[in-house]
DNA sequence: AGCACA
């Protein structure tokens, strides 16, 4: 043994109440580490799954002598410290206390946040998730979603103990291969706790389930297969229709406020809710109508038109996968016209709250349950472009954890493609008014017809009274019913 | 197999 090697790690020799454990098994659970350490004293803190490989941990004893006794014991023991048969290396930490050992995801609760790594959203059906986690207790609710972190699921158990047992057993584990499509490689579960205590599931769908309420309606637009935008032979997208429109606003030289959106879209029917958000640097808005027909009318009439003269704020409309927006009733980016009383907002527990929770880690530390509230009045982080892919995997009955499971409640029904009448969804208009995306020479204006009747296509678009310059910024020029002949655009950019 | 950033 060279003196240099002794010097190399000399600094680790200073005793500390905190021990550094390394070479732990993959995603070793906190309980396993405690089991190893607690014979030597009282553990006051741990920090697990640290290091690049998440196979290290820190354990803080109440007393320095307890830490010394553990190090001393294994220094002289013929049997090394082991977890799951794997030798664990124990040294004094170079710090003397564990600070902030609990990240929010480590605060136990009855709802787990599960990240399924290495899969696409369509690879793991909600039935498979349910199957896997049901082995540990009754799964009340599941909500799945896609975020930057990947495909995730919130899984609600009855209590924190059940959730903890599932977490301890499955964190870092993989979903069995036979439950996955063949093309999926590794598929590790990364599990932490959610701050939620009760998920608000609005529909039984391919992405959310409430097993406590079998009578919950099935979201008609979220049935498997329905949401996947089919591509026809001509390459046109055939989206499922919806009562909610997704408006992308191109060339947004002027502010587009909730009020502006409301004004424009109210021409075709009652606008129930609006949410404005940014997506890939482009402003988009979700506009909710009471029914699909109204939305279709508005879509037909507004597609390709500009809110302002001069080719500004050009609208591109598609159907959202949403059917009922959960938005803050009054904010600068959203409006819920069905909730006149702001105090009602608390009762409008948005199912999107957990999405928001994912997007912005602003859950109050230690504060119980941000349940049912959109935190901070933020606009929910809608991600309408993430169109869920219909699971190609049909979960078959099988056994897992020694239990036999029935077939999934939802068979992958064939997409009722015929129900989508939209055959002219091409982004490029074939009409005379060739609204060049880059060089809009002729102004196409929003035609507002309060009756909503006989919406005009882009080719027969009437014009607004004037350019935004004449009207001042921020106010679209709307002339109800004042249909001018086509080609009479007064503004030439 | 060698130190934490939530």
From TrEMBL:
Plays a role in pre-mRNA splicing. Binds to the polypyrimidine tract of introns. May promote the binding of U2 snRNP to pre-mRNA. Residues 424-434 have a biased composition (Polar residues). The keyword Iron does not apply. InterPro entries: Nucleotide-bd_a/b_plait_sf, PTBP1-like_RRM2, PTBPH1/PTBPH2_RRM1, PTBPH1/PTBPH2_RRM2, PTBPH1/PTBPH2_RRM3, RBD_domain_sf, RRM_dom. This is RRM domain-containing protein. One of its GO terms (biological process) is regulation of translation. Residues 17-95, 242-322 form the RRM domain. GO terms for molecular function: mRNA binding. It comes from Acacia crassicarpa. Residues 413-423, 447-462 have a biased composition (Low complexity). Residues 413-434, 447-493 are annotated as: Disordered. Keywords: Acetylation, mRNA processing, Nucleus, Repeat, RNA-binding. Its main location: nucleus. It is found in: Nucleus. One of its GO terms (cellular component) is P-body.
């Amino acid at each position: 043994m060279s003196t240099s090697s002794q010097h190399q790690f000399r600094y680790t020799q200073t005793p500390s109440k905190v021990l550094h454990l390394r070479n732990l098994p993959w995603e070793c659970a906190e309980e396993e580490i405690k089991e190893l350490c607690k014979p030597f004293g009282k553990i006051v803190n741990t920090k697990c799954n640290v290091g690049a490989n998440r196979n290290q941990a820190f354990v803080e004893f109440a007393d320095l002598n307890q830490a010394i006794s553990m190090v001393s014991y294994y220094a002289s023991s013929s049997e090394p410290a082991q977890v799951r048969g794997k030798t664990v290396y124990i040294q004094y930490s170079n710090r003397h206390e564990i600070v902030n050992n609990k990240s929010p995801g480590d605060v136990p609760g009855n709802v787990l946040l599960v990240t399924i790594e290495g899969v696409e959203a369509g690879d793991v059906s909600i039935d498979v998730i349910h199957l896997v986690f049901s082995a540990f207790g009754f799964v009340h609710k599941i909500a799945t979603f896609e975020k930057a972190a990947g495909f995730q699921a919130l899984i609600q158990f009855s209590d924190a103990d059940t959730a903890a047992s599932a977490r301890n057993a499955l964190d870092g584990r993989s979903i069995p291969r036979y439950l996955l499509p063949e093309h999926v490689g590794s598929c590790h579960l990364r599990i932490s706790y959610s701050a939620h205590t009760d998920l608000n599931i609005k529909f039984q769908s391919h992405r959310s389930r409430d097993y406590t309420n079998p009578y919950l309606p099935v979201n008609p637009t979220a049935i498997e297969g329905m949401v996947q935008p089919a591509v026809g032979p001509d390459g046109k997208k055939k989206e499922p229709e919806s009562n909610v429109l997704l408006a992308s606003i191109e060339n947004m030289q002027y502010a587009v406020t909730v009020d502006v959106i409301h004004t424009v879209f109210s021409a075709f029917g009652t606008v129930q809710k609006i949410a404005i958000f940014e997506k890939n640097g482009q402003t988009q808005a979700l506009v909710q109508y009471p029914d699909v027909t109204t939305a279709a009318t508005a879509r037909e009439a507004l597609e390709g038109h500009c809110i302002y003269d001069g080719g500004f704020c050009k609208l591109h409309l598609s159907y959202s996968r949403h059917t009922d927006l959960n938005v803050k009733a009054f904010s600068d980016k959203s409006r819920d016209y069905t909730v006149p009383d702001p105090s009602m907002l608390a009762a409008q527990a948005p199912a999107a709250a957990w999405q928001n929770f994912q997007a912005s880690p602003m859950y109050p530390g230690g504060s119980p349950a941000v349940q049912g509230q959109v935190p901070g009045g933020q606009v929910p982080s809608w991600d309408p472009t993430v169109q869920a892919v219909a699971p190609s995997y049909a979960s078959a009955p099988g056994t897992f954890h020694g239990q036999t499971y029935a077939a999934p409640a939802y068979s992958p029904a064939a997409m009722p493609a015929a129900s989508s009448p939209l055959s002219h969804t091409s982004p490029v208009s074939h009409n005379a008014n060739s609204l060049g995306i880059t060089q809009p020479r002729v102004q196409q204006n929003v035609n507002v017809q309060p009756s909503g009747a006989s919406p005009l296509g882009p080719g027969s678009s009437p014009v607004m009274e004037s350019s935004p310059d004449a009207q001042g910024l921020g106010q679209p020029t709307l002339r109800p019913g004042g249909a001018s002949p086509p080609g009479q655009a007064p503004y030439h950019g």
